[in-house]
């Protein structure tokens, strides 16, 4: 298993007849770390949902390596190596941590769960606790680990740090950095915390009203406070 590239061209998509994304072009090399930024409602979640096959696509192509994802339904995209960790941390509240992890194994042996515990030791300590008993940070670790056990080659993380304490955010960001460094997956991160995005990503894309308003290196954006202010506003 190795990281996959992503090439999106002319992507226009939305919900039913409503177009939210308009003419998105985006290239991520295999093994890349990219952050998708933008104010609320600018289309970040819709972009992930569209890559995952959960919206209506009106035009454009989405290539993961040589595979045209638009020809596949959502389940086939997941089998092809696409992983999405959604914003809502959907875990099974009445299953234990270990049972939750087992649902992400696909055809892998149960022993593979140890990979999740190596990445998030906190989950090993809580393996027999119910999902519903976990803190928000632990739930985020669980939903992330469950997706990673399916060995995605392209991983999309939608605002994983939302509402979490700084110490938990640091643990999560460290795990994401470790995963990217493994060479096994390309990572796309939607994040509101600018510092976390800057520290993690080598490339940044800013969406505004469903279009790519800016893209470039993390360093270039950090040295351009006017663009940060214009497209991301105060409070970041
Ligand atoms: N299921 C849906 N049906 C119709 N419109 C939707 C749906 N989900 C989102 N939208 C609309 O699509 C637009 C983009 O929303 P989206 O959630 O993609 O933005 P976002 O950048 O991820 O925002 P946030 O940072 O608040 O999560 C918004 O105008 C939103 O109201």
Q: How does this structure look, described?
A:
With 236 residues, the protein is α/β, with parallel strands linked by helices. It has a single domain, classed as Rossmann fold (3-Layer(aba) Sandwich), CATH 3.40.50. Helices cover 35% and strands 27% of the residues. α4 crosses α6. The N and C termini lie far apart (36 Å). The structure holds adenosine-5'-triphosphate. The site of adenosine-5'-triphosphate has 11 residues, from β2 and α1. The site of adenosine-5'-triphosphate (ATP) has 11 residues, from β2 and α1. Residues 6-234 form the ABC transporter domain. Belongs to the ABC transporter superfamily. InterPro entries: AAA+_ATPase, ABC_transporter-like_ATP-bd, BCAA_Transport_ATP-bd_LivF, P-loop_NTPase. This is ABC transporter, nucleotide binding/ATPase protein (Branched chain amino acid).
Tell me the layout of helices and strands.
Blueprint: E1 6-15, E2 18-28, E3 33-37, H1 44-51, E4 56-64, E5 67-68, H2 74-79, E6 82-85, H3 97-102, H4 113-119, H5 121-125, H6 136-149, E7 154-158, H7 166-181, E8 186-190, H8 194-200, E9 203-208, E10 211-217, H9 218-222, H10 225-232
Parallel strand pairs: 3-8, 3-9, 6-7, 7-8
Antiparallel strand pairs: 1-2, 1-4, 4-5, 9-10
Helix pairs in contact: 4-6
This protein binds adenosine-5'-triphosphate.
Residues 15, 18, 20, 38, 40-46 line the site of adenosine-5'-triphosphate.
Q: What is the CATH architecture descriptor?
A: 3-Layer(aba) Sandwich
CATH class: Alpha Beta
How many discrete domains? 1
Strand line-up in the sheet with most strands? 6-7-8-3-9-10
Largest sheet: 6 strands, mixed
- Summed over residues and divided by their number, the pLDDT gives a mean of 94
Alpha-carbon Rg, integer: 17 Å
The CATH homologous superfamily is called P-loop containing nucleotide triphosphate hydrolases
What's the β-strand tally? Answer: 10
Q: What is the fold-level CATH name, i.e. the topology?
A: Rossmann fold
**Overall shape:** globular
The secondary-structure class comes to alpha/beta
Distance between the termini: 36 Å
Portion of residues in beta strands equals: 25-35%
Uncertain segments of ≥5 residues (pLDDT<50)? none
Helix content: 25-40%
Summarize the helix and strand pattern as letters.
Answer: EEEHEEHEHHHHEHEHEEHH
């Amino acid at each position: 298993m190795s990281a996959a590239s992503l090439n999106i061209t002319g992507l226009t998509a939305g919900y039913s007849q409503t177009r939210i994304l308009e003419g998105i072009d985006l290239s991520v090399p295999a093994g890349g770390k990219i952050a998708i930024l933008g104010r609320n409602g600018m289309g970040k979640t819709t972009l992930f949902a569209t890559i995952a096959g959960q919206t209506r696509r009106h035009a454009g192509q989405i290539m993961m390596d040589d595979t045209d994802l638009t020809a596949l339904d959502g389940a086939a995209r997941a089998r092809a190596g696409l992983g999405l960790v959604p914003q809502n941390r959907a875990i099974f509240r009445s299953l234990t941590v270990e049972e939750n992890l087992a649902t992400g194994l696909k055809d892998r042996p149960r022993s593979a769960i140890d990979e999740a515990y190596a990445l998030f030791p906190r989950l090993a300590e809580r393996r027999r606790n119910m999902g519903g008993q976990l803190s928000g940070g632990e739930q985020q670790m669980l939903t992330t680990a469950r997706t990673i056990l399916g060995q995605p080659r392209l991983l999309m993380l939608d605002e994983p740090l939302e509402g979490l304490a700084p110490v938990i955010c640091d643990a999560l960001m460290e795990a994401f950095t470790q995963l990217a460094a493994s060479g096994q997956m390309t990572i796309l991160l939607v994040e509101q915390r600018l510092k976390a995005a800057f520290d993690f990503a080598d490339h940044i894309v800013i969406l505004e009203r469903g279009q790519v308003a800016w893209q470039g290196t993390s360093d270039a954006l950090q040295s351009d406070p006017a663009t940060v202010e214009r497209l991301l506003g105060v409070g970041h």
